[in-house]
Amino acid sequence: MNGFAKRAALPLAAALLVAGPVMAQSSRGGSSWLPYTQNGYVGLNVGKPDYKLGCTAGFSCDDPNASFHLYTGGSFNDWFGVELGYLYMGKAHRQGGVTRGHGIDLNAVGTFPVSQSVKLFGKLGLTYGRTTISANAGSGEIVGDDDGFGPSYALGASYDLSQATALLVEWDRHDMHFAGRGRESIDAINVGVKFRF
Question: How many beta carbons lie within 10 A of that of residue 154, not counting itself?
Fold first, then answer.
């Protein structure tokens, strides 16, 4: 099993455990786990993140193999909704050490139906992120932990396999705080699956 598959296995298993009861309840419809919303869902995205951090000459700067985003959402109407999730942006080997990022995000979601099965969507919100940097002393990198709020954005498209299940592809960006750097962006290209209540 390659590194990507190993990192994706745990969140995928968690999504499938959640999906069973969700799909069993899907005939009910209308419910959501988020207040004041309906037509709830849970989803899991797995992606390839890109840390927008530089590197000192002579030290490697590799991006993580995988990230994941586990979330739940609901809608206010056919066009507008909200999502709450947890994201892990992977472990980047850089500057002779490791850089990690994870957090919780809350996003407003706008949806535009292209056809009965295909939808385009955009997200705008906030991420509360926490990062950790370790590095070789010779790199000059400032090490330590940092946390704080930053904006998050996403664009994507989904395809409905059924009334209860959809596949999606998504680009997202989360701004997180890094020790000695302030706020920096982490981008990811993701594929995912969404299970509706």
Answer: 22
179 C-beta neighbours (distance < 10 Å), count: 17
163 CB-contact burial (10 Å; exposed 0-12 / middle 13-18 / buried 19+):
exposed
CB 123 within 8 A of CB 143: no
Residue whose C-alpha is closest to residue 97's, from 148, 49, 53, 147:
53
Kindly report, residue by residue over 66-102, the tens digit of the pLDDT: 999 999 999 999 999 999 999 999 998 888 899 999 9
Query: Mapping DSSP to helix (H, G, I), strand (E, B) and coil, where does residue 53 land?
Result: coil
Joined together, the tokens standing for residue 52 give 């927008």
Is residue 99 within 8 A of residue 91, CB to CB? The reply is: yes
pTM value is 0.82
Q: Does domain 3-196 have CATH number 2.40.160.20?
A: yes
CB atoms within 10 A of CB 136: 15
- Report helix, strand or coil for 62: coil
